Amino acid sequence: MDALKERKNRYFLISAIGALIALLSFLLFPFVTWNIKISSSIFSLALAFPLNATLISRPAAAIWLCAVLALGALVVSCLLIYRSRPFGGQTPAETQTQWGLYGLAGAGVLALIIQFIVVSNLGSTIKSDPSFFNAVNSTGSSSSSSISSLLTSITESSASYNIGAWLFLLGMLAVIVSAGIEILQRDPKLHQALLPQAGSVPNPYQGQPGQPGYPPAYPPVGANPYPPQTPSSPQQPGSGYNYPSTPQVDPYASPQHPEQQPPAEYR
């Protein structure tokens, strides 16, 4: 149990949990929903039937590959957690770990591809396989003629993901993502290739050859933001036009205009 708590095994643990969820959802939950539409001259009826993996495997046995790949991902994840050399032998431990990680990512991608292809073609496959109806009919009361008439009355047949397929999808995505993150962390060359290199991002303030660059938005630290002001030299007599000096006005002096005299009663 101590190996499950180690930080280096956290992504292996996520991969193991995802593979376990995918395997249990494949075996225990309805995997797909079979949607059919029956039309005749009298009525038109749309039906939906949940199907588990056992029923799906009759017309499409390739669906069992999904369970095998999920089981293999679970076993490899456990080996990566509990063994320093997952596959034994004299091969270096780091190389064996890389093999296991690439195997996990490949198994997850392949399982999702098989799942999508099988479910996409399941509707037409069931419609063209009368033995599927014999397997579904547990009582055996329906004759071959009634099954044939039912098949001919089906106008639309398709399949969609049910809860089991969605859980399987999420579980295998967890396997792929955790393995991919661990691969990036263990491969420094690949990790550096995905990161932006120094100098690869152009500097907007660096001008092109022959062109001035953009000025900075703010002056550099310590620089004077205002231009220096030099005092102007005194004007020499006769060097130009001399402006008359403005006399200083005393605000407390009496008015100098004789026409502005106070009224006679205040004199």
What does this structure look like?
The protein is flat. It is built from nine helices and three strands, in the order ααββαααααβαα. The protein has a three-stranded antiparallel beta sheet with strand order 2-1-3. The protein has helices spanning 2-5, 10-28, 53-56, 64-82, 93-127, 130-136, 144-153, 163-186, 188-194; strands spanning 32-39, 44-51, 154-161. A hairpin with a 4-residue loop joins strand 1 and strand 2 (44-51). It has a domain at 2-187: Butyryl-CoA Dehydrogenase, subunit A, domain 3 (Up-down Bundle). With 267 residues, the chain is mostly helical. Helix 2 runs antiparallel to helix 4 (64-82) and helix 4 runs antiparallel to helix 5.
Radius of gyration (Å): 43 Å
Q: Please provide the count of β strands.
A: 3
CATH architecture of the domain at 2-187: Up-down Bundle
Principal-axes geometry comes out as: flat
Which spans of ≥5 residues are poorly predicted at pLDDT below 50?
Answer: 139-143
Output the CATH topology of the domain at 2-187.
Butyryl-CoA Dehydrogenase, subunit A, domain 3
Helix/strand/pairing category: mainly alpha
How many helices? 9
Main beta-sheet strand count, sense and barrel state: 3 strands, antiparallel
Strand order of the largest sheet: 2-1-3
Distance between the termini: 114 Å
In what range is the share of β-strand residues? Answer: 5-15%
Mean pLDDT: 75
Helix fraction bin: 40-55%
User: How are helices and strands ordered from N to C?
Assistant: HHEEHHHHHEHH
CATH class designation of the domain at 2-187: Mainly Alpha
